[in-house]
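Backbone-to-sequence.
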């Protein structure tokens, strides 16, 4: 798209809308970085690719029922409010889930390290033998 096409687009939808779209696409790029690091972390834990993908698919499942969350928050208000209690509840559940994940991972790594199994595949290093 040349300068002429960009200026036509800006005049059609507005410059602020284009800035918001650019910011959204930029932020979505960071999501792929988190996905890559999560896959590497699961590999370091020694999970097979099939188990890793099953875990990631299960973690993405709530996004599939997102329209249902919207309908529930629209038709079942809590304390007279439609969305604020649901957003607060989702935030609390998210924090608890991330803290739980951190504790489980730390416990797993600490157990693996204290058992002397060493590397990802359970092999001992040459220095430890």
């Amino acid at each position: 798209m040349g300068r002429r096409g960009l200026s036509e687009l800006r005049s059609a939808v507005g410059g602020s809308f284009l800035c918001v779209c650019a910011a959204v696409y930029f932020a979505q790029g960071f999501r792929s970085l988190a996905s890559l690091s999560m896959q590497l972390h699961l590999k370091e834990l020694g999970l097979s690719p099939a188990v890793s993908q099953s875990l990631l698919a299960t973690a993405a499942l709530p996004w599939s029922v997102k329209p249902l969350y919207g309908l529930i928050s629209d038709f079942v208000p809590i304390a007279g409010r439609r969305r604020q209690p649901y957003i607060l509840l989702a935030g609390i559940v998210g924090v608890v889930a991330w803290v739980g994940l951190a504790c489980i991972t730390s416990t797993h790594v600490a157990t693996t390290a204290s058992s002397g199994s060493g590397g990802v595949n359970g092999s001992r290093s040459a220095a430890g033998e």
